[in-house]
């Protein structure tokens, strides 16, 4: 496997392309593309890839990009795309539709602040606004995770026990435009890992059908239940895909969550993506000083791994959730799911929300130290704690 120094966008474009190429002996691959900063490099790389059996369709909008990917997937092709921020917002109708059609599309999303006012820096509010749609969501902290998670996403999505689309997410610029040593798998290994896509409900000339027509309430309820049951099977299938990845590529792509020093931790931080990378260094330093601090790095957001999270935090009396996102009037999205995971199971733990890096603000070790100091002094949870607030003069400008 060649190790190259590439950006996160390069890694994503490569992984999507070789995954598509791996379906060349079946129905091939297809991708609807539309550029948006900071993911444009991804679709540029896909467009330049020499697919044996594949179509890359440049369209006029993000909505149409997902439309093309949906049509290709319904025809049995391995379909994928990429987007970001307001592009995802424009695509949202078709994102919902792809999920309820149970199409195993993989989309790489480069997390960028939603506007207006316009801001191109990292913020997870764009993908987290899709939390109620039937999409699996996975968050990456570096270029290698982007590569490996994207490949795993196809195997997970296409498993007949799942058949749900997957979002693979990375922070704008911090990962998307930052170069790092990345093991880019050979096509032959990807071919071994990804079996030909066999979509059981694909449309064919021999069996013409209408899709998405009017149905009655009880049928809608039944279909929603089937989706819910498929989501429930995701964790077990994910672990199977993870094990198969290790067999083929010789490395662990990572679990639904990764833990650091949680066994006896009294305070535990919960974070995702690159915020978790910084938090890990702070936790290591705290341990060296004798403080019982731990970290849970969340990789899977949907379905939310509640039981695994409760096990990881079994020793904690205080949990601080680091949210690089904001839901109006509520606070952090990760925090809301963490609280829900503990509800009815434990009432002796303080779960406090910290809004960090909103709009792409720096999340430094010093900031996380301040979070730990605040968390350590709490006897009860309070409203979300905001960090990185602009001065009145800066707001006026």
Shape summary: globular
Main β-sheet: number of strands, strand sense, barrel status?
Answer: 7 strands, mixed
> Topology as H/E string?
EHEHEHEHEHEHEEHHEEHEEHEHEHEH
Structural class: alpha/beta
How many beta-strand segments? 15
Provide a descriptive summary of the structure in words:
- The protein is α/β, with parallel strands linked by helices.
- The chain has 13 helices and 15 strands.
- Helix 12 links the parallel strand 14 and strand 15.
- Helix 1 runs parallel beside helix 2.
- It is globular.
- The mean pLDDT is about 95.
Record keyword descriptors for this entry.
397 residues, 15 strands, 7-stranded mixed β-sheet, alpha/beta, 13 helices, Rossmann fold, 6-stranded mixed β-sheet, 41% helix
Chart the SSEs and their pairings:
Blueprint: E1 3-7, H1 8-21, E2 29-33, H2 40-48, E3 54-58, H3 62-74, E4 78-83, H4 85-100, E5 106-111, H5 125-128, E6 136-139, H6 143-158, E7 166-171, E8 179-183, H7 187-193, H8 217-249, E9 257-260, E10 267-272, H9 273-288, E11 293-298, E12 300-302, H10 306-312, E13 318-323, H11 333-342, E14 350-355, H12 365-376, E15 385-386, H13 392-396
Parallel strand pairs: 2-3, 2-4, 4-5, 5-7, 6-7, 10-11, 10-13, 13-14, 14-15
Antiparallel strand pairs: 1-8, 6-12, 9-11
């Amino acid at each position: 496997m060649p190790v190259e120094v590439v950006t996160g966008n390069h890694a994503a474009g490569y992984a999507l392309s070789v995954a598509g190429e791996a379906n060349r002996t079946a129905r091939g691959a297809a991708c609807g593309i539309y550029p948006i900063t900071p993911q444009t490099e991804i679709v540029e790389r896909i467009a330049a890839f020499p697919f044996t059996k594949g179509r890359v369709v440049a369209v006029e909008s993000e909505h149409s990009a997902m439309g093309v990917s949906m049509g290709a997937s319904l025809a049995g092709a391995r379909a994928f795309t990429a987007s970001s921020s307001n592009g995802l917002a424009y695509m949202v109708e078709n994102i919902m539709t792809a999920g309820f059609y149970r199409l195993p599309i993989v989309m790489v999303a480069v997390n960028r602040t939603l506007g207006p006012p316009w801001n191109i820096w990292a913020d997870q509010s764009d993908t987290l606004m899709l939390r109620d749609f039937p999409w699996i969501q996975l968050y990456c902290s570096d270029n290698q995770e982007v590569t490996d998670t994207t490949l795993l996403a196809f195997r997970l999505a296409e498993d007949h026990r799942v058949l749900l689309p997957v979002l693979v997410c990375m922070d704008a610029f911090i990962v998307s435009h930052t170069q790092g040593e990345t093991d880019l798998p050979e096509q032959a290994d990807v071919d071994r890992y990804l079996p030909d896509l066999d979509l059981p409900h694909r449309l064919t000339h021999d069996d013409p059908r209408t899709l998405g027509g009017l149905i009655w309430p009880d049928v809608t309820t039944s279909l929603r239940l089937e989706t819910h049951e498929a989501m429930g099977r995701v964790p077990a299938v994910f672990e199977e895909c993870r094990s198969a990845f290790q067999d083929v590529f010789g490395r662990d792509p990572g679990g639904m969550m990764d833990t650091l020093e949680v066994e006896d931790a009294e305070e535990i931080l919960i974070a995702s993506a690159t915020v978790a990378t910084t938090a890990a260094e702070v936790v290591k330093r705290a341990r060296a000083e004798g403080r019982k601090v731990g970290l849970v790095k969340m990789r899977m957001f949907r379905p939310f791994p509640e039981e695994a999270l409760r096990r990881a935090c079994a020793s904690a009396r205080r949990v601080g959730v680091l949210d690089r996102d904001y839901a109006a009037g509520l606070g952090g999205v990760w925090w809301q799911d963490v609280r829900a995971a503990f509800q009815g199971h434990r009432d002796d733990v303080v779960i406090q929300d910290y809004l960090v890096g909103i709009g792409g603000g720096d999340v430094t070790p010093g900031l996380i130290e301040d979070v730990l100091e605040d968390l350590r002094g709490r006897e009860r949870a309070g409203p979300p704690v905001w960090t990185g607030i602009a001065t009145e003069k800066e707001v006026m400008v």
